[in-house]
């Protein structure tokens, strides 16, 4: 641990010397630490294991499992999960759509997947969630009041058996936190403007924290995934709404769970921390950055490191990024080690080359993708699009079967570089 801090410290000294434009720039002191022999915790700029050794996170994000993502499935014609669900119901009917979502829950991530992830060398899985799983709303083929803790309980058991830590990430929030649809919202960050949504948000996180307050495989709660990506307007909510909501939610979580790390994503989809100013001594806080590409990863990492060293004083984690190939994986791991910022790549499983494990899509899947981009605004145009697609629900069953890990293809060169 001492050696890691010395190396990190030497790098930071050089970095600050290069970046500082005035004598006022200086490193902030470490916050108070509360070591634990049972739970992952924060000490200085490091995330620590219960055995008091640093944990540099190397993880995968289970995108597309409990928070459906059309782009992960190769269906980019729809932006949000609800739009994808509507398209499936329009083409195949409600029963087939519900059956598909149930199959995704059962097949997309299984115990075999967690064994595979551990065997690759990863130490953490990030689980994007949708608030609807914990609310009185029909979602993913489930009727109201479904007990979604059952599937998470199984996940924690699998991770316990395979030595993996878990980050619970709220991808879809009440009202939505973004303008790009991946939050399952309606194209505006209503969560940041409406107190009713905020109350529901805090209530759901409190229920989750109550359920898993004693879970030793839980690394932490990532409260809001990639908030406020709109650089032209909604970023104004970063200081006036986003950070205050983080603090309120954390304070309520602390009433039921005093053990686990709470993770704050930056604004502008995890890239902007300029609106943050609350750096008091609450224990076990981590700031999450994200990167949409690897080309300028060193520059991005340095920006995040300056924020960590001169303002926050808490650890940083790159909670989501995508890598296209082994060369990009090499750039990521090198920068991660040099800056002492762990990473999570995603998706773990999907149809594109950015996935660690690739789904071999069935015949006809391209027709479904075309249907989702077709004009379906009126019932007349919907009829024409459905007729042109000429697909049966069997293609959904084939995709769910193809998503089983034993039927997927591992990108071994990429994985090998990610573990360096």
Distance N to C terminus: 19 Å
- Largest sheet, strands/sense/barrel: 8 strands, parallel, barrel
Succession of helices and strands: HEEEHHHEHEHEHEHEHEHEEEHHHEH
Integer average pLDDT: 90
Helical residue percent band: 40-55%
SS content category: alpha/beta
Count of helical stretches: 14
Strand order of the largest sheet: 3-4-5-6-7-8-9-10
Which percent range describes the beta-strand content?
Answer: 5-15%
User: What's the alpha carbon Rg, rounded to whole Å?
Assistant: 21 Å
Shape: globular
Query: What is the tally of beta strands?
Result: 13
Low-confidence stretches: 1-24
Entry keywords:
3-stranded mixed β-sheet, 420 residues, 13 strands, disordered N terminus, alpha/beta, 8-stranded parallel barrel
Summarize the structure.
The chain is of the alpha/beta class and 420 residues long. It has helices at residues 2-19, 81-92, 94-107, 111-120, 149-162, 195-212, 237-253, 267-270, 297-312, 326-339, 365-373, 379-389, 394-402, 412-418; strands spanning 41-43, 46-48, 58-61, 124-130, 165-172, 218-222, 261-265, 285-291, 316-321, 342-345, 349-350, 357-358, 409-410. The strands form three sheets. It has an eight-stranded parallel barrel, surrounded by four helices. A three-stranded mixed β-sheet has the order 11-12-13, with no helix packed on it. A two-stranded antiparallel sheet has the order 1-2.
């Amino acid at each position: 641990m001492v050696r890691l801090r010395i190396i990190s410290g030497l790098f930071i000294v050089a970095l600050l010397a290069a970046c500082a434009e005035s004598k006022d720039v200086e490193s902030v002191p470490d916050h108070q630490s509360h070591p634990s022999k049972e739970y992952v915790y924060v000490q200085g700029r490091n995330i620590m294991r219960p055995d008091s050794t640093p944990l540099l996170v190397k993880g995968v994000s289970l995108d597309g499992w409990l928070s459906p993502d059309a782009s992960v499935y190769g269906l980019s014609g729809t932006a949000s999960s609800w739009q994808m669900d509507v398209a499936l119901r329009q083409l195949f009917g409600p029963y087939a759509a519900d059956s598909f979502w149930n199959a995704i829950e059962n097949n997309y991530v299984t115990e075999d997947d967690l064994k595979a992830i551990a065997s690759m060398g990863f130490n953490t899985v990030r689980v994007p969630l949708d608030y609807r799983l914990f609310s009185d709303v029909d979602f993913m083929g489930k009727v109201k009041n479904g007990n979604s803790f059952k599937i998470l309980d199984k996940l924690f058991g699998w991770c316990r058996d395979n030595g993996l830590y878990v980050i619970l990430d709220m991808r879809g929030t009440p009202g939505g936190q973004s303008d790009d649809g991946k939050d399952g919202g309606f194209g505006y960050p209503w969560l940041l403007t409406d107190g009713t949504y905020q109350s529901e948000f805090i209530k759901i996180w409190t229920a989750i924290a109550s359920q898993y307050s004693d879970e030793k495989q839980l690394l932490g709660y990532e409260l809001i995934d990639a908030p406020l990506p709109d650089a032209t307007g909604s970023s104004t909510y970063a200081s006036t709404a986003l950070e205050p909501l983080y603090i309120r939610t954390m304070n309520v979580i602390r009433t039921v769970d005093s053990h686990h790390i709470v993770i704050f994503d930056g604004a502008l989809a995890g890239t902007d921390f300029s609106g943050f100013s609350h750096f008091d001594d609450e224990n076990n806080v981590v700031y999450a950055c994200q990167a949409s590409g690897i080309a300028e990863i060193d520059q991005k990492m340095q920006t995040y490191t300056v924020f960590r060293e001169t303002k926050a004083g808490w650890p940083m984690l790159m909670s989501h990024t995508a890598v296209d190939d082994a060369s990009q994986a090499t750039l990521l791991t090198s920068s991660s080690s040099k800056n002492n910022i762990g990473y999570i790549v995603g998706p773990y499983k999907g149809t594109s080359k950015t996935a660690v494990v690739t789904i071999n899509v069935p015949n006809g899947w391209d027709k479904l993708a075309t249907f989702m981009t077709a004009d379906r605004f009126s019932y007349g145009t919907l009829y024409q699009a459905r007729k042109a697609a000429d697909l049966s629900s069997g293609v959904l069953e084939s995709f769910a079967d193809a998503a089983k890990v034993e039927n997927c293809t591992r990108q071994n060169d990429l994985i090998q570089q990610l573990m360096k």
